[in-house]
Amino acid sequence: MSEGEGVSRREARRAAQRTHRVRRRRRTIVAIVLGIALVGAGIAVAWPIVAGLFASEPPPEDFAGPGSGEVVIDIPSGANGQDIGIILKDAGVVKTVDAFSAAFRDNPNSASIQAGTYALMEEMKASDAVAALLDPANRAELTITVPEGFIATQVYERIANVMEIPLEEVTGAAADTEAIGLPAEAGGNPEGWYAAATYPFAPNATATDILATMVTKTVTNLEEIGVPREEWQETLIIASIVEREGTPEYYGQVARVIENRLTDSTADVGGRLQMDSTVLYGVGQIGGVPTQAQLDTDTPYNTYLNPGLPPTPIGSPGRAAIEAVRNPPEGDWLYFVTVNLDTGETKFASSLEEHLTYVQEFRQWRDENEG
User: Fold this and answer.
1) Under a CB-based contact definition with an 8 Å cutoff, are residues 321 and 251 in contact?
2) Dmax over Cα atoms in the chain, in whole Å?
3) Deepest of 24, 52, 120, 208, by most Cβ within 10 A of its Cβ?
4) Verdict on whether the full-model pTM lies above 0.90
5) CB 207, CB 159: distance < 8 Å
6) What does the alpha-carbon distance between residue 207 and residue 213 come to, in Å, rounded to a whole number?
7) Peptide linkage before 66 cis (omega within 30 of 0)
8) What is the pLDDT of residues 113-145, one digit of tens each?
9) Per-residue pLDDT at 24
10) Is residue 63 predicted with pLDDT exceeding 50?
C-alpha cells in the first residue's frame, strides 16, 4: 500500500466517526426533547389535580346584606363565636355558622360581645352581624332598678311600669313562690328577697322570670358573703333595718346597735329594737317620723312594744348592708341618732343619758334649720 492510500483510509475512518458522533448527538437531543415534551404533558395533565389538593377551600356561604326586618335574639353568658353563630343562624340573621365564625375570628373586638338581648336584621352579612353585636345601640333590653330599701309592693309597681304589664300579673307571679324560687327560709313571704340591683331584661321577659332573677341574686349574695343558710332570713331582716336606719358610712355601727339591743335585758331596752322604720312599715308608711298614735299601734313590726326582730324584712337590703350585718365593728352602743340631716352625721351612745344629749343636739339643729 502506498503512503497516499494509507492517508486516505485514515481520513475516511475519521470522517465516518465524525458522522456517527453527529448522528448520536442528534438522537440524544431528540430523546431529550421528547422526554421534556412527555414530562410537560404529564405536568399539564396532573397539575389540576395537584393544584386542587393545595388550593384553599371556597369561603363559607354568606348573605350579601345589609339585611331587612328585625329579629330579637338572646346571647347567653359565656357564649363563644360558634355558639353565637348557631343562635344567629337559627334566627335567620346569618346564612351559615361558618360565615359568622370566620367573621368573629377576623374582628379583633369580637371578644367584647356581651351577653344580653339584641335587635338585629334578618339576612345580614356575617361581618355586619359581628359589628352590630358590638354596638350598644342594638341592645334590646329593658332595665329595672330596685333601689336599696324598696319594699315588695314598690318592686311590683316598678316591674309593671317598666314592662308595661298589669300589676295584677306581677303580684300573681309573686304569689307562686315555688315558681320564683323563693327559699323555704322566707316562710312564704318574699319581702326583702328581691335584691337591690339594676337588672337588664329582654322585652318578652315574664314577671315570673324577673322576680326569679331578683330572688336568685339575693341567694347569690348571701352565699358569696358566707351567710349560713339557717341565718338567711334573720340576716335579711337585720340588714333591711340597717338599710332604712343608717347610711353606708354607719351601716356597721347600726348593725352592732341592733345586735346589742337584742341581747340587752335592762329595763330601758329589754330586747326591744325601738326602731322607727319598723313601726312605720307595720302601719304601711314608708319614711318619715312616726306619730305617737303610730308608736302606740301594736303590730308585729312595732319594735317599741315587742322585743326581738320583726317577722320579715322591711325592704330589700343592698349587699353592703348584708356585709355590715355579718361583720359589724366592736362596740357597746345601744342608741344612735342623726344630728344633722344635711350631712347625715350620726352619733352613737352606750347609755340613755349620753343618747339624750345627742337627741338635744338634733333638736337644736332642727330648730335652726326649719324649712
Assistant:
1) yes
2) 165
3) 120
4) no
5) yes
6) 10
7) yes
8) 988 889 899 999 999 999 999 988 888 888 999
9) 54
10) yes
Residue 21 pLDDT: 53
Of residues 148 and 29, the one with the higher pLDDT is 148
Distance (Å, rounded) from C-alpha 264 to C-alpha 268?
Answer: 9
CA distance to 61, 160, 291, 301, per residue, from 147 (Å) = 48, 16, 26, 22
Please give the residue that has the higher pLDDT: either 41 or 293. 293
